[in-house]
């Protein structure tokens, strides 16, 4: 059979012959005479096969003696490609999407998508940083005016909003100020304008007026623990009481101690002395029994019957002397769910401040209004029933009460949709302790401000040179 008529020189014919011999010597049907006649290559004793098939042959080819055409086995890549194509036609959406994600077309296009997404991220990131910078400059300007004593009410509220400490009534006032600005565009500043206060604790009709609860708790004392146990276990309030007791150290005062539900969580190795106060005599007696049973050898413990509103008089060396230098003072004052039962909770907190030692802390565990309107609606609807059952107004805005007092919040943590308030407070003007300064405030914010101040100084020097 003549298969190489187009070869023009003997060298090419010889190389082609050797290639065929090397790749067909192991197959019986190809063991035939291969010779060169003149300028042509002749294969004798084999079926007529095209040169392209012979040249591309290797050991992975399958063949039959009856002359069936040779068929190549599928490679791993070809099998995977067929499977991919089948999955891309799958009726199941997840399988189909997974196949598309593995396809070469998608992988090539993914790079473009990622670059586009990165560009979008950079754009919005720049805008966000720009807004933060503008906010920082505005805050610095307002704080400067505050130090000069030239702030108006709107600017004071704006400082709270930017610091994240604005309460519900503050946000309501800010909304009114902005509405006023929209109605009067020519109004440049709000100097001399003071809006009416919209305190949630006074304007909300669902918040019932305070009542004298001493007689109520006298009757409730014996069954109080058994009645509240299930509810506190259900919401895991024990963890919050542990948090409260963990802050106790030095001379400790617990106000509204009730039946002594926090006693079992106290670590008396950190406590020098402890005083328990409650308006209900029977509850104080129950607390005394619990304490003596838990810590029979601890001697520096006192149990006092009295109201939180009369705390300064009770702590005075003489009943007629109520100045701060004449009263007993404490390192830690704790209270759990007491503000809701006081006739005047603001006065009670002011008394706490007067009885606090320098660098002392007031630890509050309270229930009040939550962070969601739907939750507040539920507790408002059940407020009257709660007052009759447990003698407390559980829908008060605790943040507003503390803000109206002589205390300043150090840390504030809220759980149970914001209805449980865990607060560490100090007297206004006292400095924070080292362990109370967060990482961001301690390292990042201070370094950024220092860096900005350096830039300002450099700019001022350059301007003075010019």
Automatic annotation (TrEMBL):
GO terms for molecular function: methyltransferase activity. One of its GO terms (cellular component) is mitochondrial inner membrane. One of its GO terms (biological process) is methylation. It is a single-pass membrane protein. It is found in: Mitochondrion inner membrane. It holds the Pfam family Methyltransf_25. It comes from the Eukaryota. Keywords: Membrane, Methyltransferase, Mitochondrion, Mitochondrion inner membrane, Transferase, Transmembrane, Transmembrane helix. Residues 252-360 form the Methyltransferase domain. Belongs to the methyltransferase superfamily. METL family. This is HBR341Wp.
């Amino acid at each position: 059979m003549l298969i190489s008529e187009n070869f023009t020189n003997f060298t090419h014919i010889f190389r082609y012959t050797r290639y065929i011999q090397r790749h067909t010597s192991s197959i019986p049907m190809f063991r035939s005479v291969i010779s060169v006649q003149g300028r042509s290559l002749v294969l004798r004793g084999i079926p007529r096969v095209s040169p392209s098939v012979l040249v591309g042959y290797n050991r992975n080819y399958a063949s039959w003696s009856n002359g069936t055409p040779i068929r190549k086995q599928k490679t791993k890549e070809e099998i995977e490609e067929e499977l991919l194509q089948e999955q891309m036609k799958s009726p199941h959406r997840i399988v189909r999407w997974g196949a598309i994600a593995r396809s070469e077309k998608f992988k090539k296009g993914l790079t473009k998508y990622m670059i586009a997404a990165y560009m979008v991220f950079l754009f919005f990131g720049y805008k966000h940083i720009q807004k933060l910078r503008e906010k920082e400059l505005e805050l610095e300007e307002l704080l400067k005016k505050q130090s000069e004593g030239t702030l108006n009410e709107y600017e004071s509220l704006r400082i709270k909003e930017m610091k994240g400490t604005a309460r519900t009534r503050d946000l309501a006032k800010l909304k009114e100020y902005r509405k006023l600005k929209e109605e009067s565009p020519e109004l440049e500043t709000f100097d001399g304008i003071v809006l009416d206060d919209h305190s949630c604790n006074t304007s909300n009709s669902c918040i019932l007026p305070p009542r004298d609860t001493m007689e109520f708790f006298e009757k409730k004392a014996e069954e109080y623990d058994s009645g509240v146990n299930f509810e506190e276990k259900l919401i895991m309030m024990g963890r919050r009481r542990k948090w409260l007791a963990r802050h106790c150290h030095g001379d400790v005062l617990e106000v509204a101690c009730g039946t002594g539900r926090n006693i079992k969580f106290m670590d008396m190795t950190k406590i020098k002395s402890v005083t328990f106060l409650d308006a209900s005599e029977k509850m104080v007696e129950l607390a005394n029994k619990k304490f003596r049973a838990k810590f029979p050898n601890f001697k520096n413990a006192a149990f006092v019957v009295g109201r939180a509103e009369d705390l300064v008089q009770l702590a005075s060396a003489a009943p007629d002397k109520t100045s701060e230098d004449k009263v007993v003072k404490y390192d830690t004052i704790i209270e759990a769910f007491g503000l809701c039962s006081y006739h005047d909770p603001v006065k009670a907190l002011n008394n706490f401040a007067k009885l606090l030692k320098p660098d002392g802390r007031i630890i509050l565990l309270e229930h009040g209004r939550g962070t969601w309107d739907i939750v507040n609606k539920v507790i408002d609807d059940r407020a009257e029933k709660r007052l009759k059952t447990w003698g407390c107004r559980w829908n008060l805005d605790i943040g507003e009460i503390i803000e109206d007092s002589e205390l300043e919040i150090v840390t504030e943590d809220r759980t149970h949709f914001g209805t449980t308030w865990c607060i560490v407070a100090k007297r206004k003007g006292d400095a924070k302790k080292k362990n109370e300064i967060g990482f961001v405030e301690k390292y990042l914010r201070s370094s950024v401000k220092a860096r900005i101040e350096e830039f300002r100084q450099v700019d001022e020097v350059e301007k003075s040179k010019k």
